[in-house]
Amino acid sequence: MKLATFVALCLIGLASLTEGYKIYKATTVNCRSDPNTSSKVVRTYNTNDNISLTCQTSGENVKGNTLWDKTTNGCYISDYYLHTGSSGYVAKKCSGGSTGGGSTGKIPGPIKNDYPYPGQCDGVDPWNYFKCQCTSFVAWRINSRLGVKFHNHYKGPNWGNANTWDNAARSTGVPINSNPVPGCVAQTNSGSAGHVAWVAKVSGNQVTIEEYNWTRHKYSTRTVPKSTFNYIHIKV
Ligand SMILES: *[C@@H]1O[C@H](CO)[C@@H](O)[C@H](O)[C@H]1NC(C)=O
Ligand SMILES: *[C@@H]1O[C@H](CO)[C@@H](O)[C@H](O)[C@H]1NC(C)=O
Ligand SMILES: *[C@@H]1O[C@H](CO)[C@@H](O)[C@H](O)[C@H]1NC(C)=O
């Protein structure tokens, strides 16, 4: 019995060293030419295949997971179906991908105050948030830069104040973790109503955010330690 346990542990160690991963949650998975389900199926993998990765990138959201794994066969499978032991990156980010996701990704756009209601802070915005609040600015950025029709009742629950965005993300299967990428949402429960911001840049252990109402009703940018926030991945 002891020997069997020892052998099993060694095999686990070996598997993680050689970075071969298994399919789970399905018996067959499509491997595609690009990290989205509209692209061409290049080949399929089965449950017992030993799959090695060259890199990972963000792409279409598959059941709440936006990560895609590029295999050594040069095609992409949704990370939802690959048992890597992590919902985050376990291999390097693919470079030059048109879908972004890395710090070279295209989504964030210029760091500037493009909020449509600067200084017009009365009333409610089209996404059902009070204008000039942190939530209103981030709702605007999700709509304008990610092309996602986000609003106060996105996917059902009341997203409400910034300090309930983490709960809303969890209850709707939107990924939330401690790994920022440009174009995701920074969220914290600290302060009376919490705070949310737009992640513009990630560099080492620091994250550069754009935000509203850190100073009352005003736009600002800050560079802070990653650990300041949780990160909600609406699209990336
Ligand atoms: C899985 O693939 C990796 C990389 O090609 C290889 O080094 C390893 O030996 C394989 N593992 C198994 C259990 O086949
Ligand atoms: C799928 O990915 C490719 C390459 O990134 C892109 O050109 C294409 O527009 C994507 N299709 C959809 C529907 O997202
Ligand atoms: C907006 O900022 C002001 C002053 O910084 C603060 O008192 C207020 O609570 C903030 N609003 C929200 C909803 O956090």
UniProtKB/TrEMBL annotation:
The keyword Signal applies. Keywords: Signal. It holds the Pfam family CHAP. Residues 1-20 form the signal peptide. SUPFAM superfamilies: Cysteine proteinases. Residues 109-233 form the Peptidase C51 domain. InterPro entries: CHAP_dom (IPR007921), Papain-like_cys_pep_sf (IPR038765). This is Peptidase C51 domain-containing protein.
